[in-house]
Amino acid sequence: MQRVAGGSGGHHLDLHVDPAVASVEQAAERAVALGARVRHRSRGLVISASPGGFTFCLVRWHGEGTVPGPVRLDGAGASRADELCLDIPAGTFEREHSFWTALTGWEGHDGGRSAQPVRLELRRAGLDDGGTGHLAFACADRERLAARHATAGARILAVLPHETEMADPVGRRYRLTGVTDG
């Protein structure tokens, strides 16, 4: 996952295509057949949008396989970005869910860890809400990390039983969650 630099910002996935299975162009053709729209093509990169308008990139896999370890910040405990959540308007949720399942081949899970280094969570938003994405950071101590982020300019929006909702200094939402995979 990666943060985009231009426009109003946002988040998107980079999906790495194994060249032994398909080329980036072949993967893009499959994505289009599933309902994606291509926004940009260049050698080894296809930037697309899902049927619901969520940006993703198809790039060539170069054998990457190591998940970065957690970051430890000033006594705030270990944390790492481990999830990209797409907040999908209720009226398009089933279509979007079908698209991502078919495109990635990832089976749905109800909580817990999957075998993927980064989870993709699809959340059903209200009728007019959604159409956005946000990151979630798994952390050892939500309270301490939220306080550290607040000191750096973020705002704590809500403290819930299993997550803390945050907003960065310009208002982009993200979540702090508990460590779920030891």
Please give the radius of gyration in angstroms.
Answer: 17 Å
CATH topology of the largest domain: 2,3-Dihydroxybiphenyl 1,2-Dioxygenase, domain 1
Report the sheet-strand fraction.
Answer: 35-45%
Uncertain parts = none
Count of domain modules:
2
Average pLDDT number: 84
Q: Strand tally, please?
A: 12
The portion of residues assigned to helices is 10-25%
Helical stretch tally: 3
The CATH H-level superfamily of the largest domain is 2,3-Dihydroxybiphenyl 1,2-Dioxygenase, domain 1
The helix/strand order is EEHEEEEEHEEHEEE
CATH C-level label of the largest domain: Alpha Beta
Shape: globular
- Looking at how many chains there are and whether they match, the oligomeric state comes to single chain
Major sheet details = 7 strands, mixed
Structural class: alpha+beta
Q: Termini, distance in Å?
A: 22 Å
CATH architecture of the largest domain: Roll
